[in-house]
Design goal:
Blueprint (H helix, E strand, L loop, with lengths): L9 E3 L29 E10 L6 E10 H10 L2 H14 L2 H10 L5 H5 L14 E9 L2 E3 L5 E4 H10 L2 H14 L9 H4 L6
Antiparallel strand pairs: 1-5, 2-3, 2-4, 4-5, 4-6
Protein name: HNH endonuclease
Length: about 200
């Protein structure tokens, strides 16, 4: 188990965080290929969804699993100023730590409760057309520690608007390099950006 985090609340990884096409859990880091389930370290899962015009059902835009080494490399590729702005935004606008305490105190380790509303705008998945969900995992368990959470498209736009052109270019390059997107999503990513946490 991770030395940096004592895992006190966890549950089996729910299907919403499975690989969509394969309908199974991620076993390797999407970026470097490191085994995630056989090791003894934490990793992240990120998924983005969008509702097409006229549809009420959200469709997967991308998904990835990321080991902590690759996550740190992505973090370090952004400028110190950009990382500070992201941290300040979350500190000023979200209740992540307070929500974490409340939900653990009442033993609400139901993924739907943690994911249903954006942690910044408090909008539900039903109210928004775009959203991303994030999970912290260990082996085949989802760890309840400030994650899992959902960010709506409006929140992601707020954060991306804080970043420099250089940091935005890095995010665009990461998206192009790391995500194997089907051709139908090519146009989507010309106009939209994703946020790697």
């Amino acid at each position: 188990m991770s030395e940096a985090l004592e895992i006190t609340h966890s549950a089996p990884i729910p299907k919403v965080f499975y690989m969509e096409k394969e309908e199974k859990q991620f076993t390797e880091c999407t970026i470097c290929g490191k085994n995630l389930t056989g090791g003894n370290e934490l990793y992240l899962i990120e998924k983005a969804f969008e509702k097409k015009t006229g549809s009420t059902q959200a469709e997967l835009v991308f998904e990835l699993a990321c080991c902590m080494d690759c996550r740190q490399e992505m973090h370090d590729s952004l400028s110190i100023e950009s990382n500070e702005k992201i941290a300040a935004y979350f500190e000023a606008n979200s209740r992540v730590e307070e929500r974490d305490r409340e939900l653990k105190e009442h033993n609400l380790v139901d993924t739907d409760i943690w994911l249903n509303n954006c942690i910044v705008k408090n909008k539900s998945m039903d109210e928004v057309n775009e959203y991303q969900i994030y999970a912290l995992c260990w082996k085949d368990e989802l760890v309840f520690h400030q994650m899992p959470f959902m960010l709506c498209g409006e929140t992601i736009d707020d954060i991306l608007n804080l970043l420099s052109s250089k940091s935005l270019d890095i995010i665009n390059d990461l998206t192009a390099d790391l995500i194997d997107l089907p051709p139908e999503f090519g146009e989507l990513f010309k106009d939209k950006k994703v946020l790697f946490i």
